[in-house]
Design a protein that fits this description.
heterodimer; A: 263 residues; mainly alpha; 11 helices; 74% helix; 0% strand; globular; B: 257 residues; 73% helix
């Protein structure tokens, strides 16, 4: 019950930042327009990327950008500040899980971000491909929902891991700076993995960052995956979830021993 | 002399943070590599050489990067501080000085951190010219340098216009980000925009194509009319921004007098 209340409250709170979310999404979208125009130019000049038709590739780039914005792991300021300024004990004394408390705070904010940006997303899609022709199956809806729940958990686990590195380092902005450059490539926001050489693609597909943009964008933009491949993707997700759960448990236990609270 | 000492002291202060200096250079270098990687991968998968050869795209990246670095060196720290000076009423610290207002407001403080980025830009130009065996004449090279200088001025004028908005709006950070994100489009070749209105918009309203594509065109082939056109456009943008500054300065309220 506590988490549902928290979800509702954060959703209400983040409503106040609707315009801010919309503007920040547009700021992200404008450079993407260059890539979309480039794709349009490539296909109109008679060339194409192997395995991709025009509509799927345009959809891929747009969905990857939105998905990247929602799932990209960051060092979450609430957690790092709790650790840095010694206010973590306030949460530790409460009868809820600190891990899940922040999960609901982060994803209710992201849901509001998604809702405010959806109009711009649809408009951009319409400008480039008109009304997309996608065969929709209700059974796929279950797959998408399951995927997004699992992806949100993996993405949050990475966020949590990054944030609790504040136990070790006083300032972790440099991690964010490195991530700014590395993540677009590792997540598939930059380019679909199929465009890289095969050996690079195989590595990238096994990284947990591939669940952030590459797989969701490919799942939604085209029906390129067979049922077996979808099972493999879910399998990989479970493996990474288990790995992250173990690492987080060990790091959290060790870090709490070294933590000094204030108040 | 005042400005020499002012910038010299800033350089000395900056040298205290050597690792920060190195990190700035490193991230700048990585950003450039990512743009190169993007086009390398595209050209590996699709043959676009008949529309735009790869060396032109690489030159475009180098040109855009040097325009951005020159803008950062001369203008960015000055122009980005204007909205805050207006908001907090400290602009008169600049207005009362017995030095030219525009110089004082727009170019007085150099961002010396980017000097090393300019060295990487130069190396990048040399590497591209050597790798792709690009032939050029002194005329096209001079034309390129002139057009790069004009592109820097155009960008500075645009960013100044946005900063001037702070006379009427409390915060212009969102507008600045929005405008800057348009300039991110300058690494794409103009040939991809087929619609006349888009080209017009990206030339005369938000001059994205002046930043990278105009100098590239001037380097490929010297055309006096094009260079003069960019020159006139630069004068237009600079005059409008100067006029806006003078017209809007009457709305400024000082907090210190």
């Amino acid at each position: 019950m506590y988490y549902i209340g928290l979800l509702k409250q954060t959703l209400n709170e983040s409503k106040a930042y609707r315009l801010n979310f919309l503007l920040s999404f547009i700021v992200e979208l404008i450079p993407l327009l260059g890539t979309l125009f480039l794709v349009k130019f490539i296909y109109s000049s008679g060339s194409s990327f192997q395995g991709w038709d025009y509509q799927s590739l345009i959809l891929y780039f747009i969905i990857a950008r939105v998905s990247g914005d929602i799932f990209t792991p960051v060092s979450w300021w609430d957690i790092t500040n709790d650790i840095k300024y010694g206010s973590l004990n306030y949460h530790l004394l409460k009868p809820y899980s600190y891990f899940f408390h922040n999960y609901f705070v982060i994803f209710s904010t992201k849901i509001m971000y998604l809702l405010t940006s959806i109009v711009v997303v649809l408009l951009t899609m319409y400008l480039f491909i008109g009304i997309p022709e996608i065969e929709f199956y209700w059974s796929n809806l279950f797959i998408y929902l399951a995927y997004f729940i699992l992806a949100s958990i993996i993405s949050y686990q990475m966020t949590f891991l990054l944030s609790i590195s504040a136990f070790k380092f006083v300032e972790i902005e440099f991690i964010d700076s490195i991530m700014t450059f590395a993540l677009p490539i590792l997540t598939g926001v930059f380019l679909p993995f199929d465009i890289y050489p095969n050996w690079v693609k195989s590595i990238l597909e096994w990284l947990p960052t591939s669940f952030i943009a590459y797989y969701p964008a490919k799942l939604l933009s085209s029906n390129l995956f067979s049922p077996n491949e979808i099972l493999v993707i879910f399998g990989k997700m479970f493996i990474w979830m288990i790995i992250f759960t173990i690492v987080i448990k060990i790091m959290w236990k060790k870090s709490l021993k070294a933590y000094e609270g204030i108040g | 002399m005042y400005y020499y000492y002012k910038n010299y002291l800033e350089l000395k202060a900056m040298m205290m943070y050597k690792s920060n200096f190195i990190l700035t250079m490193f991230f700048d270098f990585i950003g450039m590599l990512i743009s190169i990687l993007f086009y390398k991968l595209i050209y590996q998968n699709v043959d676009l050489s008949e529309f735009i050869p790869i060396w032109q795209v690489m030159m475009l990246i180098a040109i855009v990067k040097s325009v951005n670095d020159l803008y950062a060196l001369f203008f960015s720290s000055n122009i980005s501080s204007i909205p805050d000076r207006i908001c907090y009423g400290s602009l008169d610290n600049i207005l009362i000085k017995p030095i030219n207002l525009y110089f004082n407001l727009i170019v007085s403080t150099l961002n010396l951190k980017v000097i090393f980025n300019l060295i990487t830009d130069l190396v990048l130009f040399i590497v591209i010219i050597k790798t792709y065996s690009i032939s050029f004449t002194y005329v096209t090279l001079t034309n390129l340098l002139i057009l790069i200088a004009l592109a820097v001025l155009v960008k500075a004028s645009c960013m100044l216009m946005i900063a001037i908005g702070a006379f009427h709006f409390i915060k212009v950070g969102a507008f600045t980000s929005l405008f800057s994100s348009f300039f991110d489009l300058s690494i794409y070749p103009a040939v991809i925009y087929k619609n006349y209105y888009i080209i017009w918009f990206l030339t005369y309203i938000i001059p994205v194509l002046i930043i990278g594509n105009a100098p590239l065109k001037g380097f490929i082939e010297f055309d006096l009319r094009s260079t003069l056109g960019v020159f006139l456009l630069t004068i237009c943008f600079a005059s409008v921004s100067a006029l806006l500054l003078i017209k809007n300065i009457k709305y400024y309220k000082s907090a210190s007098s």
